TrEMBL record:
This is NAD-dependent protein deacylase. Keywords: Cytoplasm, Metal-binding, NAD, Transferase, Zinc. Substrate binds at residues 69, 72. Its EC number is 2.3.1.286. It is an enzyme of class 2 (transferase).
Length: 247
């Protein structure tokens, strides 16, 4: 586990005009939300996310997929942002320009105070018509599941990107441009297995940024402009913010 932050990384952050950050499920793990690589538990233990988070699964068994998301939505709404989320919201106030890009669909960055996080994979607390795309803030849970769209009757679906679906183009473009333009890129709590998010750190590095990867499955090492820190985000990020806040 990282004992102390590399001084050259803190210096790079202090000097940075633009910082871009990519977060993954590891940042929400300390809020009690399982990561994707954690085994599913309870009645969902027999399913892998890939078997439920796809248009095919929704077509094959819309009720099962709707109920899986309803369970996860309830868990997310019952969870609280952790110290890592709060530190990232504070970091926004310490650097001139910060772009927060997240693969997480739990909405915890916004609840922690981050302004306008780029939600590459959508937001599980939002629901839309599977045909018209209209968003609905409320829906009946006591009738047919998935609830039918009040306007056209098609099933409502969670506003998340499923396997095989395209990411929202405008959000992805903003994330790509932020990675190209930043001075420092932090990749936090992600296994870096799912494209196109996984390419963002490489885009930043190839455009001259200093890149730090923070998660629990890296071997600690630092090279010029490249840092791998084995640490819990809820522990390391408050330390990073505290150091930056010092004059
Ligand atoms: P993963 O579950 O693939 O990876 C979680 C990462 O977080 C791992 O690298 C862990 O080491 C790390 N980790 C766990 N606890 C941590 C902690 N307390 N502090 C820091 N790191 C920690 O989750 P993602 O990389 O986010 O896509 O998965 C990416 C995408 O794959 C998801 O957005 C989802 C999934 O398929 C879609 O649903 C489209």
């Amino acid at each position: 586990m990282t004992s102390s932050l590399p001084t050259s990384l803190v210096a790079a952050l202090r000097a940075a005009r633009r910082v871009a950050i990519l977060t993954g499920a590891g940042v929400s793990a300390e809020s009690g939300i399982p990561t994707f690589r954690d085994a599913q538990s309870g009645l969902w233990a027999t399913y892998r996310p890939e078997e439920l988070a796809s248009p095919e699964a929704f077509r094959r068994n819309p009720r099962l997929v709707w109920e899986w998301y309803a369970m996860r939505r309830a868990a997310v709404l019952a969870a609280e942002p952790n110290a890592g989320h709060v530190a990232l919201a504070e970091l926004e106030r310490l650097v001139p320009t910060l772009t927060l890009i997240t693969q997480n669909v739990d909405g915890l960055h916004a609840r922690a105070g981050s302004r306008d996080p780029l939600e590459l994979h959508g937001n599980i607390t939002k629901v839309r018509c599977s045909v018209e795309g209209t968003f609905y803030a409320t829906w009946a849970e006591d009738g047919d599941l998935p609830p039918p769209c009040p306007a056209c009757g098609a099933p409502l679906r969670p506003h998340v990107v499923w396997f095989g679906e395209q990411l929202p183009t405008d959000v992805l473009q903003q994330a790509w441009h932020a990675a190209e333009a930043c001075d420092v890129f932090l990749s936090i709590g992600t296994s870096g297995l799912v494209e196109p998010a996984a390419s963002l750190p490489r885009v930043a590095y190839s455009h001259g940024a200093t890149v730090a990867t923070i998660n629990l499955d890296v071997r600690e090492r630092s090279e010029e402009r490249l840092f791998y820190l084995h640490a819990r985000s809820g522990v390391l990020l408050p330390q990073l913010v505290a150091q930056l806040a010092r004059a």
